[in-house]
Amino acid sequence: MSNEILEVNVANDELEQMECVYEKPDTLTDTKMHYCPGCGHGVAHRVLMEVIDELGIQEQTIGVAPVGCSVFAYSYMNVDMQEAAHGRASAVATGIRRIHPDKYVFSYQGDGDLAAIGTAETIHTVNRGENILVLFINNAIYGMTGGQMAPTTLLGMKTTTSPFGRTVETAGFPMKITEMVATLPGAYYVARHSVHTPNAVRYLKKALTKAFQYQKEKKGTCFIEVVSNCPSGWKMTPLQANEWMEKNMFPMYPPGEIKVPK
After folding, report:
1. What's the helix, strand, coil split of the chain in %, to 5?
2. Is residue 220 included in any domain, yes or no?
3. CB of 49 within 8 A of CB of 61?
4. Which residue, among 214, 241, 75, has the nearest Cα to 143 in the 3D structure?
5. Phi, psi dihedral angles at 217 (to 5 degrees)
6. I need a surface site. Which of 15, 77, 83, 122 has the fewest CB within 10 A?
7. Residue 233: its pLDDT value, please?
């Protein structure tokens, strides 16, 4: 036996003895993701699909993705997916859930979608207590369409439509949409997390697991915000974007559970 073959056999034996830390779940496709380096969307996708896989509800789950960076989510999530018009994901998810009351239904939306053109649909969906999960990715900017100011853009934050920084006089205050949603009686569980550290991912995963369990129990709307970054839109490296997010985004949008069942 040659040394090369012996080395390969030894390497294979060592691999078999190693503990498997992570395997890609069946709920993620093999499609290469298009997201920019350092973007939080890919991690959010993975965590969401891990939860669905571990709960064994892949065949019973339907997702809705609208316009924005999340528009291609149906290419990566190996569950039944439905595209929606800009801002209308929660309305589409409502219709799907009412037609299929035995299914698990979620919408996956960005801040330019959910908190801008989709504000009315979001508020009324939650106020009715529709039995769905709304997953809200907040990076405080329109990531896909050119880096414009979003309703969640911070004061003083520069974007392509606020090149000198957002001001109260011209654009008002940033919208804390998750706190607004939490005041509605139809909101059963409301939380805000992030995906920039392993510990943060664990908190998000626990929240998503709770949300699907509450949906099974038909408790009402579950709303989870993910404070994320946009290195391309913010004109930063991934590391700089994460540091900027912690320093600037978290004081305005602090992570944690906002409304929990009594």
Report:
1. 45, 20, 40
2. yes
3. no
4. 241
5. -85, 0
6. 15
7. 93
Q: Which pLDDT score, from 0 to 100, does residue 19 have?
A: 78
Residue type, 224: I
Cα separation, 137 vs 140, in Å, equals 9
Q: SS3 sequence, 100-127?
A: CCCCEEEEEEEHHHHHHHCHHHHHHHHH
Q: How far is CA 53 from CA 24, 155, 174, 220, in A?
A: 10, 39, 35, 22
What's the angle, vertex CA 169, arms to CA 192 and CA 144, rounded to 5? 50
The structure tokens listed for 148 are: 């414009």
Q: What is the CATH number of the domain that holds 209?
A: 3.40.50.970
Residue 60 resides in a domain: yes
Matching residue, tokens 């528009």: 71
Note the pTM of the prediction, 2 decimals.
Answer: 0.91
What are the mean pLDDT values of the chain's consecutive 10-residue runs (262 residues total)?
Answer: 58 71 88 92 96 98 92 92 95 98 97 93 98 97 88 95 95 97 98 97 98 97 97 95 97 98 89
> Terminus-to-terminus CA distance in the chain, angstroms?
67
Domain count, the chain: 1
The pLDDT of residue 5 is: 61
Given a contact cutoff of 8 angstroms between Cβ atoms, the answer to whether 70 and 109 are in contact is yes
Residue 98 is assigned to a structural domain of this protein? yes
Distances (CA, A) of 260 to 30, 182, 204, 221, 256: 36, 9, 14, 12, 10
> Does a structural domain hold residue 166?
yes
Instruction: Give residue 195's domain range.
Output: 35-259
